[in-house]
Design brief:
Distance between the termini: 23 Å
Number of strands: 0
Structural class: little secondary structure
Radius of gyration: 13 Å
């Protein structure tokens, strides 16, 4: 695991040294919101 993120604040960027990244999303189902978005940038 690279980083565990929870709460309502925008997290700092997460960087991977590999060419893949797996994201696992859990919800406690107590609040319905828009979810999350993710973007990626190709490294140099």
């Amino acid at each position: 695991m690279i980083k565990r993120i929870c709460g309502f604040q925008m997290p700092t960027p997460v960087k991977s040294t590999k060419n893949t990244m797996y994201v696992k999303f859990f919800s406690d189902s107590s609040v319905e919101k828009q979810g999350f978005t993710a973007t990626f940038q190709k490294g140099k």
